[in-house]
Amino acid sequence: MRTIKSGISLFLYIILLLKYHSSYAETHSESTDSLLAKALKLYSKNPDAGITRIRRIYLFAKKKDDRTAEIKSATLMARLYWSGGQYDSAGLYINYSLQLTEKFNIDSLMGDSWMIAGLIDHSTARYQQAIQKYKSSALYYQKEHKLTSMATSYLNIGMCQIQLSQYDNAIRYCLLAARLFEGAGDKANLANAYKTIASCFSSLGEFPKAILYNKKALSIRLKLSDKRLIAQSLNNTGNAFRQYHQPDSGIAYLLKCLYLRKNEKDSSILVLTLQNLGSAYQMKGSMNVAERYLLRSLNIAEKYNMQEEVARGDLDLAALYLPERKFKQGLAAAQITEKTAKTLNIPQLLMDAYAMKSNLYTTQNDYKNALLYVNLKNSIKDTIFNSAKNKIISELEIKYQTVQKEKDIAALSTQNRLGDKIVLQQKRLIIIFIAASLFLLILSAAAYNSYHLKNKANQRVQTLMRELHHRVKNNLQILSGLFTMQIGELNDESIRNALRENELRLTSMNLVHNKLYQDHNNTQIAMKEYLGSLLLHIKESFGKGADIALKVDVENIELEADKAVALGLIVNELATNAFKYAFDGNAGELYLCLGLQGKSKLLFQLSDNGKGIHHNSSAKNTSFGLKLVNLMARQLDTSLTVQNMNGTSYQMEIPV
């Protein structure tokens, strides 16, 4: 809150006392502006007496229907209640002031009223609403050619956008403000605008630009000879150099700041500078000096009960102890930070404390606790994300309503001249329009939420399917590896052949699951690549790479995984039989063809130019392999035909 008020001090004492004279002034031989100025002077000495005086002016003006005096006094009451932190009372007076300015079209007072309304929202963290009200004030200030006040509105917009982490937009508005302040010759506020721009660049990690604008602010403040603000700019510039990993330059500026504040001794304003010095010396590697500055900042912060600064100082100490492997000291400091962050409800600081504790436990090889604090940090991060998402949705709804309200105000200011009856009709139409728009917005939000949940569920299903294929692939690889190991250790050729056949069957299935795992967005298998890889593996397993030529003629066809597995097992069995029985150790050729036949069938053919099948091989026809072939053929809703001419040829017509 202190930061907001110091940054908005540009407007704190600006009460635009315009050239209107009211009936109240005529009665009392003094203008409203003069009376309010005296009441404000009394307020600075005795706030209660000052408020009472302003309230009397307000009530008298209301009684006499002096709208200008009524608006000015209500606006001043709102501003004083705001500066005292009484935001509810401030809101009541400023809303009444806005109603009057809109009703009677007093544009000259609109800017002040919207500015105070923005300050109230700004101070209560309603940043989107504050931005819209600051924009309204800037619009009316522009109409009245009040450029300094307009610049103040822009600067306040930038400060709200910083709170919303909208740094690019904040820079744009602060640059507009700086241009106006420079044109008006307002050096103090120009330096304040540069300081705010520098803080935006620091948040974006653009430290050279942050240094540049901090130096601009420092140059102006040196000319103004304000030691307090000079020290502030020295501290900011030094900290920017530290963040830019130039500790020597940072230390030079920070020591100058410390020298300017030497008369402060152990004042609370030294804490940030001492912490920055400690961090800079730590970056430089001067750990003892760093520890001395950090401990001094901690002592001052504890003296003035600056709980957040104490917590941040302890976090800096923990970071100092981490590379020195001073586990106990570092853990104690991090625990203080954790406790304070929970007490003050500062999520980012709590996340930093958990991260530090995880790093400390890692140095002790205590990975259980290290993982625990990583998970705690991630849990807070998820909570912050969800909270921010809900806040953004809420603020977007409010922004929409605010924009609509601004349009309504502009329309009403024109329609008032047409009479009360027309105004009433327009208001009713506007209310209906807003209600319909909100209804559509709610429907859109519900539809988006439903889509988001469905998409999330689909992603989870895809992840589970990919994991399933991954596990099946791994298990098949393990079994295949076991069979391969056993084949190498056995002497019985019949057992070796049986194991080799099983290993090849596993490989035909494993290739499918491997491709499904690699491309988790597709459930279909490219048959050309799959069947080619399968035949090559079978050939290599028989050690006949130089004897048997493979000819693969497969079109660019994709099949579902279940059909691909069935066809792969058929190819495996038939090709294995060919390698075992067709060639008797002689050279030969194995030909595989798969292509479309019409629009609804696939033609499959696997043939060899070996010795062919003899009629007395009925024993082979009842083997497990050929039973498996027939079973897979039935699964594909087809049957296998065999031709024995210049070798053996198998054919199938597969419906698709």
UniProtKB/TrEMBL annotation:
Query: Transmembrane region positions?
Result: 429-451
Matching SMART domains: TPR
Query: Could you tell me which residue ranges the Histidine kinase/HSP90-like ATPase domain spans?
Result: 564-655
Recorded catalytic activity of this chain's protein: ATP + protein L-histidine = ADP + protein N-phospho-L-histidine
Q: Where does the Signal transduction histidine kinase subgroup 2 dimerisation and phosphoacceptor domain lie?
A: 467-541
Lineage: superkingdom: Bacteria
Q: Which Pfam families match?
A: HATPase_c, HisKA_2, TPR_12
Q: Which GO terms describe its molecular function?
A: ATP binding; protein histidine kinase activity
Per UniProt, which keywords does this protein have?
ATP-binding, Kinase, Membrane, Nucleotide-binding, Phosphoprotein, Transferase, Transmembrane, Transmembrane helix
Supply the EC number(s).
2.7.13.3
Which PANTHER family does the entry mention? ETHYLENE RESPONSE SENSOR PROTEIN (PTHR41523:SF8), TWO-COMPONENT SYSTEM SENSOR PROTEIN (PTHR41523)
What is this protein called in UniProt?
histidine kinase
Q: What's the source species' lineage?
A: Bacteria, Pseudomonadati, Bacteroidota, Sphingobacteriia, Sphingobacteriales
